[in-house]
Specification:
By secondary structure, this protein is of the alpha/beta class. The protein is 49% helix and 9% strand.
């Protein structure tokens, strides 16, 4: 998945480069900055002394030393002053310049902290929005795996109307599904099974060969057909789905490939499918939408209400401790 939000210790990320939310001197400090310097060892500070500091929005690169990464990219985020002093542009520049530097040094994977959202006071929800928008724009034009690393739950904060609407929808749908008596659920399921039996009779004389000839097109064929029907290029589709190019190649080249459910849902969102089309795509991979799954309910709500941004949906799923789309 090209952009993934994870809970982890940034200093333990085994990637090509990690990004340090540094202060202008680049000589270490508290928070993420101090943790990176402690984990990297004194050689990192020695190299940083040669860089002459760094201005807000800029980025500079050093070795990783004792860290499990090749490089540390140091960037200085803006101090929050109410949002009227160019903080948003400076914060976006931190991500953009760090990614450009990583690309220039051949990095295929980069891990960021949530820049400026700690001691510099940038509101966490706005800091997250700036981060994902800037990274997503970069990934539409470049192939790289980017992680946004959050150390603890209280370090992540998501606001906004959509998040609260989704939570309310889950309460309405998921709770109803799980508060019915077991016998009532079983009765409804038995009734549904009987309806299927009567509505879809199978001719007793049908042979196995006859049945095999009626097999629907596979997931790969269905996906490629839908991409064409939506007048999308392959690259446009897998990038909007936040799917790695190599995974898409496997799906394209292997008609029998069976992806995970979250991958199918990511494609459904990227293609802006209706609920009926989403169910068809899921069926081709052997899945179905279920009100017993909070993940399914979130995606269902977003499709019903026309929210087709995979990264926005993944932020909601992350906050709810649910699997992300595209995994």
């Amino acid at each position: 998945m090209p952009l993934e939000i994870v809970r982890n210790d940034l200093t333990k990320m085994a990637v090509d480069a990690i990004v340090n939310a540094a202060n202008p001197t680049l000589l270490g400090g508290g928070g993420v900055d101090g943790a990176i310097h402690r984990a990297a060892g004194p050689q990192l500070l020695a190299e940083c002394r040669t860089l002459g500091g760094c201005r807000a929005g800029e980025a500079k690169l050093t070795g990783g030393y004792r860290l499990p990464c090749r490089y540390v990219i140091h960037t200085v985020g803006p101090v929050w002053r109410g949002g009227t002093h160019g903080e948003r542009a400076q914060l976006a520049a931190c991500y953009r310049n760090s990614l450009a530097l990583a690309k220039a040094h051949g990095c295929e994977s980069v891990a960021f902290p949530l820049i400026s959202a700690g001691a510099y006071g940038y509101p966490k929800a706005q800091a997250m929005q700036a981060a994902v928008e800037t990274i997503a724009a970069f990934l539409m034009e470049n192939d790289m795996t980017v992680y946004l690393v959050v150390f603890a739950r209280d370090a992540f904060e998501l606001g906004g109307k959509l998040f609260h609407e989704v939570k309310a929808y889950i309460d309405d749908v998921y709770v109803d599904e799980h508060t019915d008596a077991a016998w009532e659920r079983m009765r409804r399921q038995n009734l549904a099974d009987e309806c299927v039996m009567y509505e879809c009779p199978v001719e007793e004389t049908a042979s196995l060969n006859d049945l095999l000839e009626q097999v629907d097109e596979g997931f790969s064929q269905t996906l490629l057909r839908m991409i064409d029907e939506k007048h999308m290029t392959d690259a446009e589709c897998y990038k909007r789905a936040n799917i790695d190019r190599r995974l898409f190649s496997k799906i394209r080249n292997n008609p029998d490939y069976r992806p995970g459910k979250s991958t199918v849902l990511a494609f459904a969102v990227a293609l802006r499918l209706t609920l009926a089309e989403t169910r068809t795509l899921l069926e081709r991979a052997g899945f179905a939408l279920s009100h017993s799954s909070k993940l399914d309910i979130v995606v269902e709500y977003c499709i019903r209400t026309g929210h087709y941004d995979v990264i926005e949906i993944n932020q909601i799923l992350f906050e709810l401790d649910l699997p992300l789309l595209g995994c």
